[in-house]
Amino acid sequence: MKRLLSGNEAVARGAYEAGVKLAAGYPGTPSTEILETLAEEYRSIYSQWSPNEKVAFEVGIGASLGGGRAMVTMKHVGLNVAADPFMTFAYTGVNAGFVLISADDPEMHSSQNEQDNRFFAKFAQIPFIEPADSQESKDFVLQAFEISERFDTPVMLRMTTRISHSKGIVEEYEPVKLPESGFKRDMQKYVMIPANAKKRHAAVVERLEKLRQFSEETELNAIEINGSEIGIITGGIAYQYAKDNLPDVDYLKIGFGFPLPIEKIRKFVALHKVNVVIEELEPYYEEAINAAGIKVEGKRYFSRLGELSPYRVALGLKEAGILTEAHGAEIEPEQLFPRPPILCPGCPHRGAFMALKKLGVAVTGDIGCYTLSVLPPLEMMDSCICMGASIGTAIGMEKAQGHKKGVVAVIGDSTFLHSGMTGLLDAVYNKSNVTIVILNNRITAMTGGQQHPATGLTLMGEKTKEVNFVELAKALGVESVREADPYDYAGLLKVFKEEINREGPSVVITNRPCVLMPKRIMDRPYTVVSDDCNGCSACFRIGCPAISASKELTKHNRPKAIIDTMLCTGCTLCAQVCQPEAIALVEEPVSAR
Amino acid sequence: MIVENKITNILIVGVGGQGVLLASELLSGATMAAGYDVKKSEVHGMSQRGGVVTSHIKFGKKVYSPIIPYGQADFLIAFEQAEALRAVDWLKKSGWAAVSTTRLVPPIASGGKFHYPDDPIADLKKKIGNVIAVEADQIARELGNSRLVNTLLLGVISSRLEFGYSVWEEVIRKKIKARFVDINVKAFTRGRELAAQAGEVLRR
């Protein structure tokens, strides 16, 4: 059967066809939909969200050791969290096949950096393969498992945002039949004490030689000869951009990217007058090819920043003298207002940042929807580095006495459970004087609404134990733990003020569910009583998308406010900051919303 | 008939939450059902939170890249009028735009620092000849549901694509919840009628 699938949906289908037994991961754009698709469409595979990528990776290792094919999924920076098990699992090798999906985000559509994880595979000395469309995303999963079992190694399947989130037509097949297997005790292979690890390191080096040979032979590294004097070496999405521009030149399309097929490349290059490497981000292929004494050019013509595109590739080819003209243009920002992403109408994070802004404290931030509070008009975040970083950063800033009004760490519920707990333990242990605000909206929101250990549901929809944040913080040794309603501006302000002034670490948990997920929350909307509005713009400054400037002006020529009742959720925060009390509940219930 | 080497590029733009992704699902589903190779691309994540959402759809005999080169779109479907203006330079000079007159002024343009254009549709018409502006919100409400803007705008564009009505109806029936199918088919048909009327005007 043929279906139109995104790269991520195709990877999930690939897992199904490859007979995967277990899949685990932590949500992260652009990887999230892989596990979501598994849980929805392929329920014969046990799949789970773990609290973080490290745990997910370890769960995958366990499944592999236990004899079941395992897949773990994460975004590129997730592998930083899972790097510890990743680097050593490369030594032990697998029992049943193990495939890591690393979904990189060139251009940082939804990320804090654009690291190129191809280097991670080289670092760990494990093979990586890279698809160039949805069909390959599925097919390569099956190949990855075969390679994993044949060479006794974890395999990385490297995706990028454009591959993960683009759709293409995919031909589907029935799942493969795998022989029954189970755990086989092998302490020398799986217990990495120094004596064993030394032997396993030697095995890694030996394995690498075999993989080199395989790379030369495999069809994953495909040669297309059209009799051209131009040879292009490329892989992943860059292949498609190159084909758009140069459909008829010769190609060496790299699908198996570490170790590279150096002899195949040498022969390919010898056939051509001009050889160009086109790759997104870092000059990974180029450096390895040049290091082997083969002369190619690449990053001279193509930026290592951001994504490539058909036009950016055309520009580079023009500079290389291969194209005479580059059609298209760089996207020029229109002379229009910007429309950045913003906290939703009724978002429970808004109240917390309004109060922090009022207090003028330093705010160390974290990864989640609430990071959007850095944008105008709230502009209330001073740092954001990685998952869980807010607490450690706050401790350091406070110890260095970096801010006289106090330091507050803000962290979401899912992020806190991912990697905030150890930071909180540090705050207690080292007697830090910080306030930690856990913005509990009961979901992993930024990535589209995934369950986590405090929501009471698993990925597959089963009821489970819910973490209690108050008890957890107390168990870690925090003496002052308070809950607050982020829709109560004055109340929240009071709690924050008291806790910031308190000696020692304290925790405030703001409790309100996300207005979008798991279900849409819509209370009766509010409206602006136009006669009472004095155009003070206090409601504009809370940054609610439901509030805008009306065309009607006050006598001082200031625009009055207007509330879109289709968008307003009735959170009341704007009414709480409106001095002339011009914001009131809509009298008639609004129907058909 | 599918023509060799001809790729049709359609760009859909709007604001997070407006239904851009459903529209692109329907459109790409229809092209696939009509026998084309098709690719589509959009970026999720941050764009869900009231930011700009863009979806690229390309179809033809064989499609490589899922991204439309700037200035190469044949059609633009815009769910919001200022977003149509932002995206207009993606269009070929001969391209067509179907634009909802929906006006969503973000908070950033309310503070006085930035200005939301007074009449984006007029600005749009200065840049390209073929603009069909649709009072989509009003028509959708008249038809009985504010979420019909999708199928209404697709109806407008569909009249200029090579494949017929039956493919569209089949896809709407397949991808939309059963109880909303009839009303969406109605909205789609209404879009086709609007395009036919507008076509008359534009030809004169």
Question: Could you tell me the mean pLDDT of chain A?
Answer: 95
Secondary-structure class of chain A: alpha/beta
- Measured distance between first and last alpha carbons of chain B: 29 Å
Strand fraction of chain B equals 15-25%
Largest sheet of chain A: 7 strands, mixed
Biggest interface, chains and residue tallies:
A-B, 60 and 51 residues
* The named CATH superfamily of chain B: Pyruvate-ferredoxin oxidoreductase, PFOR, domain III
Integer count of domains of chain B = 1
- The CATH class assignment of the largest domain in chain A is Alpha Beta
What is the tally of beta strands of chain A? Answer: 22
CATH topology of the largest domain in chain A: Rossmann fold
Q: Termini distance of chain A?
A: 39 Å
CATH topology of chain B: Pyruvate-ferredoxin Oxidoreductase, domain 3
Q: How many domains, in number, for the residues of chain A?
A: 4
Outline of chain A, from the CA principal axes?
A: globular
Uncertain stretches of 5 or more adjacent residues of chain A = none
Tally of helical segments of chain A: 21
Strand content of chain A: 15-25%
Order of helices and strands of chain B: EHEEEHEHEHHHH
Overall geometry of chain B: globular
Describe the structure.
The complex is a heterodimer of chains A (593) and B (204). With 593 residues, chain A is of the alpha/beta class. Chain A has 21 helices and 22 strands. Chain A has four domains: 2-217, Rossmann fold; 222-319, Rossmann fold, CATH 3.40.50.920; 349-511, 3-Layer(aba) Sandwich (Rossmann fold), CATH 3.40.50; 526-585, Alpha-Beta Plaits (2-Layer Sandwich). The model of chain A has no long low-confidence stretch (mean pLDDT 95). Chain B has a single domain (8-203), classed as Pyruvate-ferredoxin Oxidoreductase, domain 3. In chain B, helix 5 (149-158) packs across helix 7 (178-203). With 204 residues, chain B is an alpha/beta fold. In chain B, strands 2-3-1-4-5-6 form a six-stranded mixed β-sheet, with helices on both faces. Chain B has helices spanning 20-33, 81-87, 120-127, 136-143, 149-158, 165-175, 178-203, and strands at residues 8-15, 37-42, 52-60, 73-78, 91-100, 130-134. The model of chain B has no long low-confidence stretch (mean pLDDT 90). Chain B contains seven helices and six strands. Chain B starts with 7 loop residues before the first strand and ends with a helix. The interface between A and B is large, with 60 and 51 residues. Strand 8 (166-171) of chain A pairs antiparallel with strand 2 of chain B, so a sheet runs across the interface.
